[in-house]
Design goal:
This protein is mainly α. Helix content is 88%, strand content 0%. Helix 5 runs antiparallel to helix 6. The longest helix has 49 residues.
């Protein structure tokens, strides 16, 4: 994962600041997505408490869940928009810059090279690789980061209720990160 991030920053050139902004906004987006999980957990906790005590659900609990959900939704929309905006601009520009760079390099190749290798095959192969990097490279990093944050938030919410389950989730995350680093 770290190697993938390094490669993406090397290839992105002048647009690496946009990728950094995208990752920062994705961190906040992941936190707000986690807040929605907290609202669900709070709601289920209150429902279970009321079932076992024989009481009805209080309106304060309903309002609390509603407010937490609205805050979560608004934060996810705002930070998701900011992250996506930076992501798409950076990934498109990353592809465009690299296509221009490769085109300039192909202009300096000896003409005899193209008698055995078709320019169309070379350009097509390179465009396919750059297109995949453009569409999937940033997306993969984004999903890894957001998934890690959401897993940590789930651990934080599960920990007070079940230490064993929270520990298993955390160990699974750590093993996954270690496997991806090596």
């Amino acid at each position: 994962m770290i190697e993938l991030i390094k490669t993406l920053y090397e290839v992105s050139g002048s647009y690496s600041k946009r990728i950094t902004r995208m990752l920062i906004f994705d961190v906040f987006k992941g936190i707000f997505e986690g807040i929605a999980l907290g609202a669900i957990l709070f709601c289920l906790t209150k429902i279970c408490e009321n079932i076992f005590t024989g009481l009805s659900v209080e309106m304060n609990d309903v309002y609390t869940v509603f407010v937490i959900s609205v805050i979560s939704m608004m934060g996810k929309i705002v930070f998701g928009y900011l992250a996506d905006r930076n992501k798409y601009i950076a990934s498109y520009s990353l592809g465009a810059e690299n296509r221009l760079y490769i085109g300039d390099r192909l202009k300096n190749v000896n003409m005899g090279y193209f008698s055995t290798n078709s320019l169309g095959n070379i350009a097509g192969g390179l465009s396919t690789v750059i297109g995949e990097l453009e569409t999937m490279g940033v997306f993969i990093i984004e999903q890894l980061l957001v998934g890690t944050i959401q897993t940590l938030i789930i651990v934080a919410f599960v920990l007070p209720y079940d230490i064993v389950t929270a520990t298993i989730i955390l160990l699974t995350l750590i093993i996954g990160i270690m496997v991806n680093i090596v």
